[in-house]
Amino acid sequence: MATPLDQTKIDNINQYDAEKRYQYLIKEVVANREIWILTDEHGCVMLNSEDEDCVPVWPNKEFAESWATGDWDHCKAEAISLNKWHSRWSHGLEDDELAVAIFPNQNEEGLVIFPDEFDFELKQQARKSK
After folding, report:
1. pTM of the prediction?
2. 43 near 92, Cβ under 8 Å?
3. Which of 56, 55, 63 is nearest to 12 (CA)?
4. Cα(18)–Cα(33) distance, integer angstroms
5. What Pfam families does this protein's entry cite (predicted)?
6. How many CB atoms lie within 10 A of CB 11?
7. Sign of CA dihedral 19, 69, 100, 51
């Protein structure tokens, strides 16, 4: 379980560009063995990029919860274990032709990658961390 982030750390991380947020997310997800999504009564919330339907993911509960405002104020942050992500989510997203929106910031900026690429990066980081 991750240590809660203080506001100063959250503010600093929010200044990261999309690539740096991606690197942070990979390290945090592997270290904490969980990835965060937002859910509502219909399941996982989705974003639409120019070309893809995406599932947004965050490295920490605090960042996921910060998106639960406005149209999404009824949503809840939910952790998915890294094992469950590898065993079910990656294949399920691929089968449904969905991409992953990596740690979108409040301006809805973030990298969009395919589930197999994301899975590969997570596994690479896990190998480095051993």
Report:
1. 0.92
2. no
3. 63
4. 21
5. DUF2750
6. 10
7. negative
